[in-house]
Amino acid sequence: VQLQASGGGLVQPGGSLRLSCVASGFTLDDYAIGWFRQAPGKEREGVSCERSGGGSPYYVDSVKGRFTISRDNAKNTVYLKMNNLKIEDTAMYYCATEINDSTYRGQGTLVTVSS
User: Fold this and answer.
1) CA–CA dist 7, 51 (Å, integer)
2) Helix (H, G, I), strand (E, B) or coil at 81
3) How does pLDDT run across 11-43, given as a tens digit for each residue?
4) Distance between CA atoms of residues 67 and 85, nearest Å
């Protein structure tokens, strides 16, 4: 099982980025998948999560209305579209899933929001 996140970068406040997380070794559509972030000196935070089979995704309050999680099952990939980015969104972002009581996490992609 592997998760490979990408798409981070430097963006100005108000800008947008789309993060991608390519899954391998398992069928993404069969499992819940989430995006997490950790800023320097802060605890890890769950940003968004989507269960398998559809249903309303979860968003942490601070990103509601700005971030959107989506999947492309044909590509075994989950995305996090981030709009209207704020300085406080600066963090290492990574995707994670749980399979048979084991948690798998990708290596992360850095998002820096700065003017």
Assistant:
1) 22
2) strand
3) 999 999 999 999 999 999 899 999 999 999 999
4) 9
